Amino acid sequence: MTDITIIGTGNMARGIGTRAVAAGRTLEILGRDSAAAQALAAELGGAVSFGSTDAAPAGSLVVLALPFDAAKEVVAGYGDALAGKALIDITNPVDFATFDSLVVAPGTSAAEEIAALAAPGAVVVKAFNTAFAGTLVAGTVADVPLDIFIAGDDAEAKAAVVSFVTDAGLHPIDVGPLRRARELEGFQFVIMTLQANPEFDTFNWNTGLKVLV
Amino acid sequence: MTDITIIGTGNMARGIGTRAVAAGRTLEILGRDSAAAQALAAELGGAVSFGSTDAAPAGSLVVLALPFDAAKEVVAGYGDALAGKALIDITNPVDFATFDSLVVAPGTSAAEEIAALAAPGAVVVKAFNTAFAGTLVAGTVADVPLDIFIAGDDAEAKAAVVSFVTDAGLHPIDVGPLRRARELEGFQFVIMTLQANPEFDTFNWNTGLKVLV
């Protein structure tokens, strides 16, 4: 049985895949390019399976480790093959042409847009969008576990994500309903602009957003 | 000469006032109730002056240490008396009736609404909205200096706020134009919901939002 399917073969797939293996989850990597999926699966460890996105995902948790537009395409394309699954949306729908806003309208979020495209019976959970890929590989930043902000409307799906995050050595923070993705995406957009700003010379896509006590 | 005027006599006035004294700034506290202003000034130290909001603020930096509605009233009421000043908006315009949204519309911010009410020649800088009052008194959380996120359209005013924050022992992060207040206010709203959530028993209006490296 596969616990988690990650769709995507890029840096975020590597980061979350590393955490999934650390959490002891059985993992499948699916990519449009199955050779890239095979390479990432091999890198993550021998027990990780792989395939192409021509196949339906086997995991009950499906991580959309894709840019926003690709995530929408994949969810719409899979249709009913995602019924019953919890889809983890990690996207930051930044308008990279201006780097001054999101591409989603104020008052909504990428997570809500993806949820609107998902088949009946599939639920969306926002998570991991404030964590950069490299920090996910390490699981920590400045020697403290990453905070993973989680938003969703389905309690069972959120509990599965909280369990995964906890077992992965990270610190889950359930911020409430899926519409809280608006604020998670908005703030991470700001954090991303700081990485690209030469004024912050220590911020190089290596920071972690943390609620300290 | 007075460097900083704080309008308000509550917990945020105490927190920012403590930092102003630590930064070596000359400070004035103005309150609707001048006795409350006097008491806070005495608590902060002998060199801190005080008065009522019947008087115009003397400082070149004017901290609106007030709830959103009161901040709007004060700015509109002072009118031209604020010309030439940098107004620091610290507000979080949370809809406390629902605790599910802000009272400002999506696509704007309290900071921008306050700026629209300010007299010509007054500029608004968003700062301190993600810092809770108690952490400002200490200046640190978990033994690290607080991050103070700063947004504004006037470079000179922002530089004055950055200087104040730095001298106060805090870590300034200039996130860009005033419209970035949208994201700062949105995320702090989420952080505030966590403080009120019994699930997070260590979060009691004592947390600090930090960009760790």
Automatic annotation (TrEMBL), chains A, B:
Keyword hit for Lyase: no
Per UniProt, the keywords (alphabetical) are:
Oxidoreductase
User: Could you tell me which InterPro entries the record lists for this protein?
Assistant: NAD(P)-bd_dom_sf, P5C_Rdtase_cat_N, STEAP_metalloreductase
Q: Does the keyword Oxidoreductase apply?
A: yes
- Per UniProt, residues of the Pyrroline-5-carboxylate reductase catalytic N-terminal domain are 4-93
Do you know which PANTHER family this protein is assigned to? DUDULIN-RELATED, REDUCTASE
Q: What is this protein called?
A: NAD(P)-binding domain-containing protein
Task: Tell me which species this is from.
Answer: Leifsonia kafniensis
